[in-house]
Amino acid sequence: QAQVQESGGGLVQAGGSLRLSCALSGRTVSSYDMGWFRQAPGKEREFVAAINWSGGSTFYADSVKGRFTISRDNAKNTVYLQLNSLKPEDTAVYYCARRSRGSTFYTKAPADFGSWGQGTQVTVSS
Description:
The chain is an all-beta fold. It has strands at residues 3-7, 10-13, 18-25, 34-39, 46-51, 58-60, 68-73, 78-83, 92-99, 113-114, 120-125. The strands form two sheets. Strands 2, 4, 5, 6, 9, 10 and 11 form a seven-stranded mixed sheet that branches. Strands 1-3-8-7 form a four-stranded antiparallel sheet, with no helix packed on it. A hairpin with a 4-residue loop joins β7 and β8. The protein is globular, with a radius of gyration of 13 Å. The termini are far apart.
């Protein structure tokens, strides 16, 4: 059973940066396409970014394109999300998950992902 652990969240001022990490255990992360999602209070979980198993393909939600960067280090079984130029509306709990076999790489649906972690809180002050 794959396990996911997110880390790296915190409190930052608007315009600041954070780097989130997602460590996968139980399975080699290189076997999976991975994604980052976020959920703000009272809102549904939304797609942020995804990366394919090799790191050769990525795609982003329009709201974060040009500010966030997803990457991976398969030797460390870790996926990263670099958050730059943060805005107060980026405040949320951030989750990573592995894309389930059989779904398209460009899916943004949380239901197409599994092995959710506990998430890491990102708070951006204005």
